[in-house]
């Protein structure tokens, strides 16, 4: 496997774990779809965000781990929003919602993703 695929898988596994931990009730099936069944655009987006977090950690010599939980989540969310514009051009507003408009479970999941990648 290439690094991008591995990174995408790591991102997706962290997303699914976060959704299962933070989503109130039963999540939509698409939220917990296994990697093998994830659409290609979403695999590419997951790999790209993984790489952005890894690069951020690298260029800060790991100091980015000192960000607050909210800052970590915001970074992941912004990277994902960038991917939504890259893949859809004019995505649905819910796909590019600002941090304050995101549901709590999604903010918590994004923060978990940063921490999972930083390990």
Main attributes of the structure:
single chain; 119 residues; mainly alpha
Terminal residue distance? 20 Å
Indicate the percent of residues in helices. 55-70%
The backbone outline, from C-alpha atoms, is globular
**Helix and strand succession?**
HHHH
For the largest beta-sheet, the strand count, sense and barrel status come to: none
On the 0 to 100 scale, the average pLDDT is 95
User: Which stretches are low in confidence, meaning pLDDT under 50 for 5 or more residues running?
Assistant: none
Classification by helices and strands = mainly alpha
Structural commentary:
Helix content is 63%, strand content 0%. The longest helix is centred in the N-terminal third of the chain and has 20 residues, at 3-22. With 119 residues, it is mostly helical. It has one domain. 27% of the residues are buried. It has helices at 3-22, 40-59, 69-88, 104-118. It has four helices and no strands. The two termini are 20 Å apart.
């Amino acid at each position: 496997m290439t690094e991008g695929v591995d990174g995408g898988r790591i991102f997706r596994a962290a997303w699914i774990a976060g959704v299962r931990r933070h989503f109130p009730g039963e999540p939509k099936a698409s939220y917990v779809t296994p990697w093998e069944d994830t659409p290609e655009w979403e695999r590419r987006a997951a790999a790209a965000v993984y790489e952005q977090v890894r690069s951020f950690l690298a260029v800060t010599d790991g100091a980015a781990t000192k960000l607050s939980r909210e800052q970590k989540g915001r970074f992941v969310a912004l990277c994902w929003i960038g991917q939504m514009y890259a893949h859809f051009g004019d995505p649905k507003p819910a796909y590019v919602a600002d941090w304050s408009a995101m549901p709590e479970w999604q903010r918590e999941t994004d923060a978990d993703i940063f921490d999972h990648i930083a390990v």
